[in-house]
Amino acid sequence: MEANTSPFKIILGSSSKSRRTILAEMGYEFTILTADIDEKGIRKEKPEDLVMALAEAKADAVISKLHTVNNQVRGDEQTILISADTAEAILQRLPIGDYVKDAEPTLLLTCDQVVVYEGAVREKPSSKEEARQFLKDYSGGHAATVGSVLVTNLKTGFRKGEWDRVEIYFQEIPDEIIEKVVEEGIVLNVAGGLIIEHPLILPFVKQVVGTTDSVMGLPKALTEKLMREATADI
């Protein structure tokens, strides 16, 4: 797909390969700046509240990093001047200064996702043993993904996020398949060890109530909607 010609730049605040793939499939060019936060340090009772809080924290971390980088490389055309250390301060103080007013609008996308199984929230497995148990639980049963997308317009301070839920139903997954997937190690890097697009797992997915891109971490329709709202005045 050819890149979209858009009047704004995009920063993806995520190290997720699947999110990079999806955003590229949507036709956007973007840069990547990861958010280094202690995800375990943020707890919420409801999964929807948790993924939104984590997306907010990631945005704050990326913005702080941008501020630091900009102080070092002021004037680089790919660096946006951020006049605050946190998103809360941005909402209060942007736009400020001639550079920011003239700067090319930039959208920051941050996301988070958890898996919900029998009412319990599951994040990335802490070990192969836990990943193996997760997959055995899903076998012949079902789980849900709850994911968030947060868009912050770094020029105007506009910020909005929403969450999306998808239900996934599985056939029985043979133990040997589970073992192969676990030994690969990739399931350790995804919420709940749930990776339905994996060629070994995909044949055992009975039904997806929602979109596959959402399960993979970046719902296309929701992302487009939030980006449109964030750039409505451009």
Automatic annotation (TrEMBL):
It comes from the Eukaryota. GO terms for molecular function: nucleoside triphosphate diphosphatase activity. Gene3D superfamilies: 3.90.950.10. Keywords: Hydrolase. PANTHER family: BIFUNCTIONAL DTTP/UTP PYROPHOSPHATASE/METHYLTRANSFERASE PROTEIN-RELATED, MAF-LIKE PROTEIN. This is Maf-like protein. The lineage of its organism: Eukaryota, Viridiplantae, Streptophyta, Embryophyta, Tracheophyta.
